[in-house]
Specification:
Elements lengths: L4 H16 L5 H8 L3 H13 L3 E4 L5 E4 L8 H9 L24 H18 L3 H13 L4
Helix pairs in contact: 1-2, 1-3, 1-4, 1-6, 2-3
Length: about 140
């Protein structure tokens, strides 16, 4: 299982804005992250709608983080783009039926729930400030 391309790009867009520390136009973000402008605009619209970025119109328009990078987690971005909380299996999603026709919890559902909880906890514990620090450590050779 892996992130959708849209979620991956959204993470990169937030990282780009966090790294720049300033307002950027969509074209610059798109170019720096190597994402098509059209797709960048779609993602930026979702991120702005969720309150993760601020959008400004006009000559000095563009996008910037709506709050500091240490207050935006990887999980928040994933949940915004995916439209729901992360789950490793669809049997954990509300309204989904077990593909084996089981009722109640089975050994698989218990295991998937444990793994999902661990992944969500990890994603909730990593902010974009943490990502910037990891990048700085990588460049200087300092261990994370």
């Amino acid at each position: 299982m892996h992130l959708t391309q849209e979620t991956d790009y959204a993470m990169r867009i937030i990282y780009c804005l966090a790294k720049s520390g300033r307002r950027m136009d969509a074209s610059s973000i798109s170019e720096e992250m190597r994402i098509s402008l059209r797709f960048s605009l779609k993602i930026l619209g979702k991120l702005a709608g969720a309150g993760l970025v601020n959008s400004y119109k006009g000559m000095r328009g563009g996008y910037e983080l709506a709050r500091p990078a240490d207050q935006i987690t990887l999980k928040q971005v994933l949940d915004v783009i995916e439209g729901h909380a992360y789950a490793i299996s669809r049997c954990l999603c509300e309204g989904e039926d077990c593909n084996r026709g089981m009722s109640g919890c089975c050994v698989f559902q218990n295991l998937w729930a444990q793994i999902t909880s661990e992944v969500n906890q990890t994603l909730s514990g990593i902010t974009f400030a943490d990502m910037l620090a990891r990048d700085t450590n990588r460049k200087t050779g300092t261990p994370d």
